[in-house]
Amino acid sequence: MNQVLYVILGFTAGILSGVLGIGGGIILIPALVLMFGLTQLQAQGTTLALMIPPIGLLAALRYYRSGNVKLGIAVFICLGFFIGGLIGANLVQDLPGPLLRKIFALFLFFISLRMFFGK
Fold first, then answer.
1. 68 DSSP 8-state letter
2. Could you tell me if 33 and 46 are in contact, meaning their C-beta atoms sit under 8 angstroms apart?
3. pLDDT tens-digit profile of 58-68?
4. What is the pLDDT of residue 99?
5. What is the pLDDT of residue 96?
């Protein structure tokens, strides 16, 4: 039964990713922790693992065809993400799960305030 729920979660995150450009951190990680009982580290690691295949390829192609992809920017961000992801994964391994969960929640809270009240 969980496999079906995982597919529904992925489908929902895919739709939101295609519409709003969100998915991994904002949808998948909280859902995996709160609904499926994964630890914060497991949810983050699982989300990173599922980004490896080209899950956003079809949505990105649609955006690209409409002229809404800055490919030159994406390449450099991808390079930084590749290296930064390794560094971040090494740094987080020794943090206690409850502390990491609180840091993650605070990050989302401050981002939401910035998005809501910003220009």
1. -
2. no
3. 778 888 888 88
4. 92
5. 92
- pTM of the predicted model over 0.70: no
How does DSSP classify residue 46?
A: H
Token readout for 105 is 């929640």
What ranges in the chain are assigned the alpha helix state H?
2-20, 29-34, 40-50, 57-65, 71-92, 97-117
Q: Which residue has the tokens 């987080």?
A: 92
Taking the C-alpha atoms of residue 103 and residue 119, their distance in angstroms, rounded to an integer, is 25
What letter represents residue 88's amino acid? G
Q: Which pLDDT belongs to residue 19? A: 67
Note the pLDDT tens digit of each residue in 26-38. 888 888 888 999 8
Q: Give one word for 30, left, alpha or beta, with left for phi > 0 and alpha for psi -120 to 50.
A: alpha
Buried b (16+ CB within 10 A) or exposed e, 40-59: bbebbbbbeeeeeeebbeeb
Between CA 119 and CA 98 the distance in angstroms is 33
